[in-house]
Amino acid sequence: MQMFRHVENVSEWQDLPLRGGVRVGSILAVGVDLPRLLSWGPARTVAARHTRRWAQVFDHLQSSRPGPWSGWTSSYDGRPLPRRQMQDWLRATLERIKALEPRRVLEVGCGAGRIARALAPDVESYLGLDISPAALDALRAGLRADGVRAGHVDLRLGDHEALARLPGSSFDCIVVNSVVQYLPNLSALQTLLDSCGRLLAPFGAVFLGDIRDLRLQEAFAGSLAAYQQPQPLSPGALWIDISRRLIEEPELLVAPGYFAAAAPWAGAVDLQLKPGRTDNELFRFRYDVVLRHGPTPSRPPALVFRGDNAAQALVRALGRAEAPFIRGESFTDLRISPVIEPMSVKRSPRRGGRRPGGFHPARLFSLGARHGYRTVVSPAASHRVDRLDVLFQREASLPGCSGAPAHGVVARGALTQEAMTNMPLAAAALPRLRTAVGERLGGGRPILLVDALRLEKLQRDAPDWLAHVD
Ligand SMILES: C[S@@+](CC[C@H](N)C(=O)[O-])C[C@H]1O[C@@H](n2cnc3c(N)ncnc32)[C@H](O)[C@@H]1O
Q1: Within 6 Å (CB) of ligand 1, which residues are found?
Q2: 452 shares a domain with 333
């Protein structure tokens, strides 16, 4: 089998957003320049349709399968996620929101109201916004069934852009839970964050929950590929499977480093992993963000323990309650490490049979609770995807808040779409591109459209992988 660094005629297709390609047996893997694809003629119209399409999806879900957990199915086998796991997820989410002491609440993407129905009875005012009329109807019916007085609850049809029409400083708590993934792109997310900054009253907070982690996208895709294929795949076949999943992803994923730099109005930015022993996709591959309006709170210095070798010392310091703030940095995250390792292009050597160091997030939460500390567990600021950071704090003055915007190292200018999010709009434009490539190529040969950067990385790091696929 022959492999070509560049498929001769691909580079000549100046009007198509392509960059090189490789021929692998019967497959032609063609690199797509994703930023160019977004400004390619047929792709431009897709942006306007994106939000409408999600509104139809949620309308359909609500009318075809009403119920509190409709649509919450496993990406692995399509079955509903276990009820107990979903209840753990909701409990953890509600605890985080309630810790913000919400009074005047705005919820963007309130849906059928899992959160609204838990908050509305106890708050001064609640405004829920959603793009799905059916979800809003279901929420109205739910609130009626709960006997919630209607006067302080306002439900409106609208998307994230409708926030621009609300008066400034009107809310002390804004909830955006499990919604960011349906935004079309980075610029929509930035619009949402800018609006939150304007709408928050001083010292208010925004809870952005259930954010899909861009850095873990490949590991997630790899775990799906491994689960869904009856036979173990060769590295090349696995690469092809993962590449297809990545480029066809219709939802928005965001790197944790984005939030601190993108919300300059936030004095404190907390990125948080969920507590609990549950290791499903919601707990593994997603995180929550709390952004607090106002100045950065000052903190006494923390005792710091760094890396897996310091794990036991950290546990001992907690046991002796040695300091009001104890920080752990860059520990292996045992919830995520089992699914990361088999996926990396450059594999790190396995430590044969040894029990891995590090912590499962659940262990850190229970250690904190046992020794009287509040616990915040975050994706590591070191940007290692298999690592976590933890802050234990004795004081309850800022509930669940680490104060320091640990991920604030990214300059605003570095917040490019490619670095911070994937490009769901590109996925929608792929069928047209695939047709155009097929027409030029003729012959009905299978074509794999791949992110050009990913193809270039493979050619650089592991060119032999594709040679073994057929
Ligand atoms: C997965 S549900 C989450 C509902 C609720 N926040 C919760 O956690 O239970 C996502 C909701 O976001 C809504 N949504 C999606 N994109 C939106 C947008 N751009 N603006 C407002 N709502 C949106 C959908 O209609 C859907 O009801």
Answers
A1: 51, 54-55, 58, 108-111, 114-115, 129-132, 135, 159-160, 177-179, 182-183
A2: no
